[in-house]
Design a protein that fits this description.
Layout lengths: L2 E7 L7 E8 L5 E5 L1 H4 L19 E3 L9 H4 L5 H12 L8 H6 L9 E4 L13 E2 L5 H12 L7 H7 L11 E6 L2 E6 L9 H14 L7 E6 L2 E7 L12 E3 H5 L17 H8 L6 H18 L10 E6 L2 E4 L29 H6 L8 H16 L1 H7 L4 H7 L8
Parallel strand pairs: 6-7
Antiparallel strand pairs: 1-2, 1-5, 2-3, 3-4, 7-8, 8-10, 9-10, 11-12, 12-13
Protein name: Serine/threonine-protein kinase HipA
Keywords: Kinase, Transferase
Pfam families: HipA_C
């Protein structure tokens, strides 16, 4: 039995355009076919300029070792979104999705980028419900989030579903939803009951520090809801006019296979430099974005963000076939930083989280050694004031003591 759906370009949410069909066969492999009418449109584009170029032929979109299907999976849920979707469907007495196509069809279409999904090209994707206003967040909702974080078997009310369901399309393990704040879509990120420190407040403080370090960040804000921190990030894959930008994660771009036992890919393709080299042919800010990613890598080393992975970097399409590196996101120190390498390769020493390793392959970022060292010095100078900066952001004294084991200028 072959299961299929139609993929839409929802750049203009009012007029979604059918792009092609995606099907999954009995072996679990995906097959994608662009529609003839779409290919002939003047503003059509490759969903993935490396792995899914426009063609009249049906293309294999093999299931990857982690169960994903490249750029299509960027628009669908995982982790938190899967848990939330399961709770919503249980509340409605509806069966859970049993295959990748059904998961995409059950999306609320608030996921990353501009792709949407429906059962047939004549049926436009349901683009979700209107996101709640920030003012509608409440202590009651946060208690529901706490319950969901540890157990998806939660009796959700209609109000809970309306407030939380837009977040089910988003990736990542942290609890979150979509809200309208100052007239634009924002991602609202919540704490969990098992957090060791106030993660939303620390993420806010770390993003403030990243901004001071010269890193490109989206607009963000910290708000208080019933005495608890909620971190708001403006969506950079949306325009002020409400349009949606096509989005490709670095994970989809690099299409990583399972790593070798010796981890050799950390020195080559599965690395920050590998992202730079993969995006270079269609990146319209090539040298600028290469330097930007080097700066982010160095910042992650100093602040102990060892959980930075390929899904935390992305390209945004500015016009058909022309991309830029997205602003930085999901930057948080991790308590295991002193004893763990980075999650992405850093240099000739693989994933070792050291400045020496970062400098070892600076040429791949189009940097001369002296230029790379200037960036390191600039980032180190910004991070050196992290305690004062975190205090100004309202991070508690006890949390700063915990984070002192993560953030270091001596790596």
């Amino acid at each position: 039995m072959v299961l299929a759906c139609t993929v839409f370009d929802c750049s203009n949410p009012v007029e979604p355009l059918p792009v092609g069909s995606f099907a999954v066969d009995e072996a679990g492999d995906g097959h994608f076919a662009y529609g003839r009418h779409y290919i002939n449109r003047p503003q059509s584009f490759d969903l993935d300029p490396i792995h899914l170029r426009r063609s009249a032929e049906v293309q294999l979109l093999a299931r990857r070792h982690d169960g994903t299907y490249g750029v299509l999976s960027d628009a669908g849920p995982n982790a938190w979104g899967v848990k939330l979707t399961a709770s919503v469907l249980t509340r409605k007495n509806e069966p859970l999705p049993s295959n990748p196509v059904e998961w995409l069809l059950n999306s609320w279409h608030y996921g990353s980028g501009c792709l949407g999904f429906s059962r047939h090209h004549t049926e436009k994707p349901g683009l979700g419900i209107d996101a709640a206003r920030t003012e509608e967040l409440s202590g009651k909702l946060l208690r529901v989030v706490d319950a969901l974080a540890v157990n998806e078997d939660v009796d959700l009310t209609d109000s809970d579903i309306r407030l939380l369901a837009p977040g089910s399309s988003l990736g990542g393990v942290r609890p979150k939803t979509i809200v309208t704040h100052d007239g634009t879509e924002h991602i609202a990120k919540f704490s969990r009951p098992d957090d060791i420190f106030d993660v939303p407040k620390v993420e806010y403080a770390t993003m403030c520090l990243a901004h001071k370090a010269g890193i490109d960040t989206p607009d963000f804000e910290l708000i208080d809801v019933a005495g608890r921190s909620v971190f708001l990030v403006e969506r950079f894959d949306r325009t002020k006019g409400g349009r949606r930008k096509h989005y490709i994660s670095a994970h989809s771009l690099l299409n990583p296979s399972a790593l070798s036992t010796d981890g050799r890919e950390y020195k080559t393709s599965f690395s920050y430099a590998g992202i730079v080299e993969a995006m270079r042919p269609f990146n319209i800010r090539g040298q600028l974005d290469s330097r930007e990613l080097f700066r982010r890598m160095v910042f992650n080393i100093f602040v102990g963000n060892v959980d930075d992975h390929l899904r935390n970097h992305a390209l945004l399409m500015e016009s058909p076939g022309r991309y830029v590196l997205s602003p930085a996101f999901d930057i948080v120190p991790h308590i295991s930083a002193s004893s763990h390498p980075q999650s992405i390769g850093v240099g000739a020493l693989g994933a070792a989280s050291t400045v020496e390793n970062a400098l070892s392959q600076c040429g791949r970022f189009l940097l001369k050694p002296e230029e790379a060292k200037e960036i390191v010095a600039s980032v180190r100078n910004a991070v050196s004031g992290w305690v004062v900066s975190f205090k100004e952001a309202g991070v508690r004294k006890n949390d700063i003591a915990v984070l002192a084991n993560c953030i270091s200028l001596d790596r």
